[in-house]
Amino acid sequence: MSIANKLARKELIAMVPYQSARRLFASSGDMQGKIWLNANEASGPGNYQVNSDSINRYPDFQPENLLKAYSQYCQLPTENILATRGADEGIELIIRTFCQAYQDSVLICPPTYGMYAISAENHGADIIKVPLTKNLTLDLAGLKAQVGQAKVVFLCSPGNPTGNLLSQDEIQAALELFAESAMVVVDEAYIEFSPEQSVASWLKKYPHLVVLRTLSKAFALAGLRCGFTLANTDVIAMLSKVIAPYPVSAPVADIASTALASSGLEQMNIRVQETNELRVQLIHWLAQQEWCSQVFNSDANFVLFRCQNETIKSFIFDGLAKQGILIRDQSKQLNLSDCLRISIGSEDELNLLMKSIKNSFASEKINTNNVITTKA
Ligand SMILES: *Cc1c(COP(=O)(O)O)cnc(C)c1O
């Protein structure tokens, strides 16, 4: 037995790390050769300058330029904001702050974002699952039955991988249910695609509300690793005891501040508008395909759809991969059998995707038993 295996916490030995899009397909050296529609990133490069004059110094715990810029953008005072290494770090911090290891639980509503469970497992927190209803709404009766059992409740709106917003009424109902017993985290990683639905302004009313944000999606800065946790000051103070002393590096703060300045916001808004238009087109196209049995509504920069069956799902996924186009298989998620997820890339990328799927069907033939045979 290796020394690592001998000494590690025993639950880590069997644990499978998060199968991120980038772990499943590493980008090393081959970024240009493929079309990446598997991680809900924005398409196209950025253009930023960093200032290294003070790079010999540690950055501020929370760089002022960054907090001011995000404060202006989200319309909350800087005291309500904690900048983190991506929203993922926010998830981890909340669990580490509020869950006693090997004692407390988090509550998730699958199908949902995978990192809630991974971070919980990593910390030794139990996971209570209250699945979304068939219509992808919250199961409020199911949630009510768990009041008192969980310390942290994760809601994702718009949801990943489903794409739909939770209604503000449902979120409010969940907040009321857990008012005395749990932190309610609303993950708004995709809120820029329908900003009027944000619940960040509810912080005054709900002391146990936490909102997660990121620059990875609509701001096209996934490589930067910058996210924000929005919460009341006592919550921020508690999270600040757990977070690393210099969580945001100076170059990250510089680039993020630029992206949040007015011309950066303008570009973001244009990107969101284009993405929303392309998403409508992709949904329309998918709905017309006979191999597609369901297209999910989306308020985000991706579309989830269900294939007629497993064979077709694999056929489409593998056919695209062979042509250098990577999308995400979500079929292992609860109630998402035969489902695939496509991130909204550029118009060219989506055109190529549609063409490639057509190519797959043109060069192979699926007979009625769904046995795929290569056309002669
Ligand atoms: C992408 C994503 C995150 C993580 O964002 P980072 O800031 O890149 O860590 C969090 N939540 C959801 C729902 C996401 O899709």
How is the CATH topology of the largest domain named? Aspartate Aminotransferase, domain 2
* Span between termini: 53 Å
The proportion of residues forming helix, as a percent range, comes to 25-40%
Tell me the Rg in angstroms.
21 Å
Q: Figure out the total of helices.
A: 13
The small molecules bound here are: pyridoxal-5'-phosphate
Question: What's the main sheet like?
Answer: 7 strands, mixed
Please trace the helix and strand order, writing H or E for each element: HHHEHEHEHEHEHEEEHHHEEHEEEHEE
- Give the CA-based shape: globular
Question: Domains counted in the coordinates: how many?
Answer: 2
The CATH superfamily of the largest domain bears the name: Type I PLP-dependent aspartate aminotransferase-like (Major domain)
Helices and strands in order, then pairings?
Layout: H1 3-7, H2 10-14, H3 21-24, E1 35-36, H4 64-74, E2 81-84, H5 86-98, E3 105-108, H6 115-123, E4 126-129, H7 140-145, E5 152-156, H8 168-177, E6 183-187, E7 209-214, E8 227-231, H9 233-242, H10 250-260, H11 262-288, E9 292-295, E10 302-307, H12 310-322, E11 325-326, E12 328-329, E13 339-343, H13 347-363, E14 364-366, E15 372-374
Helix pairs in contact: 4-10, 5-6, 5-9, 12-13
Pyridoxal-5'-phosphate is lined by residues 40, 86-88, 113, 156, 160, 187, 189, 214, 216, 222, 227.
